[in-house]
Design a protein that fits this description.
heterodimer; A: about 110 residues; mainly beta; 4-stranded antiparallel sheet; globular; B: about 110 residues; 11 strands
């Protein structure tokens, strides 16, 4: 089946710094990737839809200047959390779409101290 | 926009019993309904899915039923085992790849 990787798997950063998370589709090309955020004991909340070669579409309430998304190729999308704060600490999961199914990455646990 | 409700939020069953989780949705254009199992700290894993042109689908101990008229679909797990303990999420999409997830059900199978 389709494989999606994410890097890093976990990261700790200081408040005010930026963190970049990579999402790669390893064995298929994905014109569309998604970024989710999951707080403890909660559901996956869609943050944005990343489209290769165009601007990302952000969900209501998600600050596009804070969560920068770049989908520069058919196999790579990146999410940069800028000026991170402790409330940004969460589990970030990407997914890549292939034939109407989504394949999830393993997630990145971000802790902002 | 689409609204997905999932019930119950927690469910405890004795090993060997059945578990049923239900989701309701609002958008009649929705046409694909996957179910995911997520273990702590891990990615969601697709366990079964159903498309709008089918009323029921079964895969060994797991089945999903869809009632398009009432706009709800359910996950059925029979002969539950301790390893079925996890959080289960339903999702809904209208074919645009964009998924809306339910709130999740924490299933605990008691040995």
């Amino acid at each position: 089946g389709a494989v999606v990787s994410q890097h890093p798997s976990w990261v700790i950063c200081k408040s005010g710094t930026s963190v970049k998370i990579e999402c790669r589709s390893l064995d298929f090309q994905a014109t569309t990737m998604f970024w989710y955020r999951q707080f403890p004991k909660q559901s996956l909340m869609l943050m944005a839809t990343s489209n290769e070669g165009s601007k990302a579409t952000y969900e209501q309430g998600v600050e596009k200047d804070k969560f920068l998304i770049n989908h520069a190729s058919l196999t790579l999308s990146t999410l940069t959390v800028t000026s991170a704060h402790p409330e940004d600490s969460s589990f970030y999961i990407c997914s890549a779409a292939d034939n109407h199914e989504q394949y999830f990455g393993p997630g990145t646990r971000l802790t902002v101290t | 926009g689409e609204n997905v409700e999932q019930h119950p939020s927690t469910l405890s069953v004795q090993e060997g019993d059945s578990a049923v989780i239900k989701c309701t949705y609002s958008d009649s254009a929705s046409n694909y309904f996957p179910w995911y199992k997520q273990e702590l700290g891990k990615r969601p894993q697709l366990i079964i899915d159903i498309r709008s042109n089918v009323g029921e689908k079964k895969d060994q101990r797991i089945a999903v039923t869809l009632n398009k008229t009432a706009k709800h679909f359910s996950l059925h797990i029979t002969e539950t085992q301790p390893e079925d303990s996890a959080v289960y999420f339903c999702a809904v999409t209208s074919g645009t790849y964009k998924y809306i997830f339910g709130t999740g059900t924490r299933l605990k199978v008691l040995a």
